[in-house]
Amino acid sequence: AALFIVLALSLIGVPPFPGFWAKLLVLVHLGEQAQSLYYLGGLVILAGAALEANYLFRVASSFYYPDNKQELPPAHRRRDITIASVLTAGLVASVFVLSPLAERLDGIATQASDVPRYIQTVNPAALPEAQP
User: Fold this and answer.
1) How far is CA 85 from CA 79, 81, 90, in A?
2) Which terminus in the chain has less CB density within 10 A, N or C?
3) At what angle do helices 2-12 and 36-64 cross, to 10 degrees?
4) Can you give the pTM of this predicted structure?
């Protein structure tokens, strides 16, 4: 529960957590703009943070002051935990696969953008003959 509160404070934007610095940078740069639409964007960010604080603190208070009328939720099924573990492992593995995949896709894009070579591969008769 304490870790949730620390992460919630960061999401809300309470200093010295990282969420504060991110929101501060965005709000400062929005404030430097000359158009009023940017000020509206800053107000939307602040209103969103206030709304987020309301919901996150409501969840946090339920950790420390549980409603006695509530029943305990059923335990997670083994199948659900297995699926979550497999998806997490896939997410971690994708970090190592992304760079080679991006390089391969870049090579494919380079080949696909070479129009004469593509035509030569697919339909060589459609290319005009070279003049000596």
Assistant:
1) 10, 6, 9
2) C
3) 170
4) 0.46
| Tokens read off for 25 | 């940078």
Tokens of 69: 């009328």
CA distance 2 to 20: 19
The contacts of residue 53 (CB under 8 Å, 6+ apart) are 8, 12
Closest of 19, 86, 98, 94 to residue 52, by C-alpha: 19
- Please say whether the beta carbons of 119 and 126 come within 8 A: yes
Q: Do residues 102 and 108 touch, judged by C-beta distance below 8 A?
A: no
Tokens of 38: 């940017």
Structure tokens at 16: 């010295």
pLDDT digits (tens, 9 = 90+) for 38-80: 888 889 999 999 999 898 888 888 887 877 666 767 777 888 8
